[in-house]
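Moderator note: this is an archived Q&A kept for reference. The question asked for a predicted structure of one protein chain; the sequence and the answer are reproduced below.
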Amino acid sequence: MTRLTTVARALIAAVAVLLASTALTPAARAGTDPKAPKDFVALRSVDPTILQEMRYVTEHNFVGERIDGYRQPLCILTRPAAEALHKAQRKLLRQGYTLKVYDCYRPQRAVDHFVRWAEDLDDLAMKGEFYPNVDKTRLFADGYIAANSGHSRGSTLDVTLVRLPAKPTRPYHPREPLVPCFASKGARFPDNSIDMGTGFDCFDTLSHTLDPRVQGAQRANRLLLKNTLEGLGFVNLPEEWWHYTFKPEAHPDTYFDFPVARKSLTSAH
């Protein structure tokens, strides 16, 4: 009887340990996310006046769903990049404009999500808006999608200009009719930014910052953004009027993968 009781107690104890470890698994997993280095900050802590319309935390992007790693609509940058953007904002506010960011730091898991989407040639849900004239088989070859992104290093952002007083951009409604991103400003999705000739993330050569077909007010708007940011240390990606990187980069060789969330930052930020 004593032997059986001892065995029974041992089995009960083993089951209890197993159940306890299973119950702790979600919490343990939650604690395994990497953290940002100390020099990463929330842009709002440096300049709360810059507008933020973080597209990848929504379904309004070229994939058509929330992107992996975007847990909160939050712009995170290295502090030098954020402070340089603050200086640009001060200059633009005096001219009647405000900056608006669409994306800032981007975790590697988000880039991996883009790659998986690009490899799925049957998923054309958002083609009508973001890449009407580009065959999806060309996304890698033409440089629209890559396995690594400068955004993951923390000093790159996607940005535009909004005239003050800023009007709100209406919410995107999933499955609403799609209009090509290079359509006239009055026809394409009603972003509150000034007219840059195309919408954000438009996979088309018209998005090239100095494309000669973009003239008049659209070209002047692109040059206002470009000249302002480049005067403060940012470098434009010529293929995308919205894409800028602050130089020198604080982490030029590291692609981070902490989630876009306040919890990823240290308490000081």
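Archived answer notes: The helical segments are 2-30, 43-46, 79-93, 108-119, 127-130, 216-230.
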